[in-house]
Every structure is written in structure tokens, then in C-alpha cells.
């Protein structure tokens, strides 16, 4: 699993969870999780065995 950041409102971002770096329909249907900073996002990735991608 790969997690890549996506800009959201103000200073927050969404983490997009995909099987691998993806585009097209797989990217559109991928779950998005909101985070306020990269530290929280990295901790979530570490706890769930997801590789942070591009941040």
C-alpha cells in the first residue's frame, strides 16, 4: 500500500491510499484521509504498514 498527499482546504491535506502509485479510476476511487500535518500522517502510515510516498 502507498499513501500520497493531496492538497485540501487551508493548511490541511488528504492522504490518498492506493495499492501502488496510481492514476485514473484507481486514484478517483481511492480512500482519502484528512490530516493537519505530516507528522500525524507518517505516524498513521507506520501504524498501518503503509509506505509514505512523495512526502
What's the short version?
By secondary structure, this protein is of the alpha+beta class.
What string, H for helix and E for strand, traces the elements in order?
Answer: EEHEHE
| Strand residue content | 25-35%
Radius of gyration, in Å, reads: 10 Å
How many helix segments?
A: 2
Specify the structural class.
Answer: alpha+beta
Instruction: Estimate the helix proportion, in percent.
Output: 25-40%
Strand sequence of the main sheet, in spatial order? 3-2-1-4
Q: CA-to-CA gap between the ends?
A: 15 Å
Query: How many β-strands, per DSSP?
Result: 4
* Average of the residue pLDDT scores: 89
Question: Which stretches are poorly predicted, pLDDT < 50 over at least 5 residues?
Answer: none
Q: Biggest sheet, open or closed, and with what strands and sense?
A: 4 strands, mixed
